[in-house]
UniProtKB/TrEMBL annotation:
Domain TauD/TfdA-like: 113-353
InterPro entries reported for this sequence: AlphaKG_dependent_hydroxylases, GBBH-like_N, GBBH-like_N_sf, TauD-like_sf, TauD/TfdA-like
Protein name per the record: Gamma-butyrobetaine dioxygenase
Cofactor(s), names only, from the UniProt record: Fe(2+)
Record-annotated Gamma-butyrobetaine hydroxylase-like N-terminal domain positions: 18-85
Example GO molecular function: metal ion binding
């Protein structure tokens, strides 16, 4: 059923983008509608059952703002910076990534060689942005050199809160007797993401080599998003099956008396159907929540993906020296290692994690602070 358009249905055009008056009134960023210091919304529109009506709309390109006078008592005028509207308007997250932060560059071994990898001096890496943040946003990992235990702690503190595991704020990864995790053995580890058996949210993972003298143990990274894109293209049926079929990931920690178990698909998509995350630790994957008649096809899909991720054309490998560190987005970048011989020397890896949202939110704070603070406050 259609009806004639009324005043409250007239869309406002800003640089080809359409905004409904209801969206604009609800999103008014003025000091009357949100707290001046916390910036949280204070306006209550629940006592206004009718849709808002814009009496006057003015687009001021010189002032870079849209001004709207609303038909209400008391009178109210809203001011919207045009770049704020284009960043936050309906549909923008789909085109620009969450809050405009999508600068993703997908890679495999060939394209990464052509692009080149950058090493960043750890002392020059701050926690308010910079080139190492840019690498994390684009290729999903950053490489640091000259890092010390104190320098690692400085970075973690600057991006706090730190994600604590059973091992504490940081974990020492060495080959030890009675290992409760395969990482604490000398065995090779295939491409995987950490903690598929925990509900953690995306993590920024630090793998810092305090000492690396053992023979073997080369460390490698894989861009899961690029590998999954190719897998989706070549095996669309298998891809869809892995998206829709939960796998039971588990880990037993005898010392702490925990049995972790999470059921989740290996591949997670966002609302637009784009790849959002990969959760894969084959050593933790057990039961499948798959109908019996689909188990054969799921087996082929799952093992097809494992073989695909193990293809060296997706792998960037490096033998890390003392003081070198890989930092990466855990739900995108898979990592692994070759086997090593602990009899030939010490291999001491320190791992630590902070929520990926902390890094993402720090970037967003600096990119959007102009919408919240005066020029003096922004300094």
């Amino acid at each position: 059923m259609t009806r004639p358009a009324k005043d409250d249905d007239r869309l406002v055009d800003v640089s080809g983008r359409k905004f409904h008056p209801a969206w604009l009134r609800y999103s008014c960023p003025c000091a009357r509608c949100r707290h001046p210091e916390s910036f949280q919304k204070t306006s209550d529109l629940s006592d206004r059952p009718e849709l808002p009506v814009a009496d006057r709309v003015e687009l001021d390109s010189e002032a870079n703002e849209l001004r709207v006078d609303w038909r209400e008592q008391p009178a109210h005028r809203s001011h919207y910076p045009l770049d704020w509207l284009l960043l936050h308007g309906p549909g923008q997250a789909g085109e620009q990534g969450a809050a405009g932060l999508d600068h993703t560059v997908h890679w495999d071994a060939r394209t990464l060689r052509a692009r080149g990898v950058r090493w960043h001096e750890a002392e020059a890496c701050g926690t308010d942005g910079g080139p190492w943040f840019d690498d994390l946003r684009s290729v999903g990992f950053a490489l640091l050199t000259g890092l010390t235990p104190q320098g690692l702690e400085r970075l973690l503190t600057g991006l706090a809160p730190v994600f604590h595991t059973e091992y504490g704020r940081q974990a020492d990864v060495k080959a030890v007797p009675g290992a409760e995790d395969l990482a604490e053995t000398e065995s090779a580890l295939p491409a995987h993401t950490d903690y598929p058996y925990k509900v953690t949210g995306p993590l920024t993972q630090f793998c810092y080599y305090a000492e690396n003298r053992a023979t073997g143990g080369e460390f490698f990274l894989v861009d899961g998003f690029k590998a999954l894109e190719d897998f989706r293209r070549d095996h669309p049926g298998w891809f869809d099956l892995l998206v829709s079929s939960p796998v039971e990931f588990e880990q037993v920690y005898t010392s702490w008396r925990y049995l972790y178990r999470v059921r989740r698909p290996v591949i997670t998509l966002d609302g637009r159907g784009a790849i959002e995350a990969i959760h894969l630790g084959h050593s933790h994957a057990w039961a499948w929540d798959v109908a019996p008649e689909l188990c054969g096809e799921f087996y082929r899909a799952y093992h097809g993906l494992v073989r695909h991720l193990g293809d060296e054309r997706y792998r960037w490998a490096h033998r890390f020296a003392d003081g070198e560190c890989a930092v990466f987005r855990n739900n995108r970048i898979l990592h692994g290692r070759n086997a090593f011989d602990p009899r030939t020397g010490v291999r001491h890896l320190i791992t630590a994690y902070v929520p990926w949202q902390q890094l993402e939110s720090r970037i967003r704070f600096h990119e959007e602070r102009r919408f919240y603070f005066s020029p003096r406050e922004r300094k």
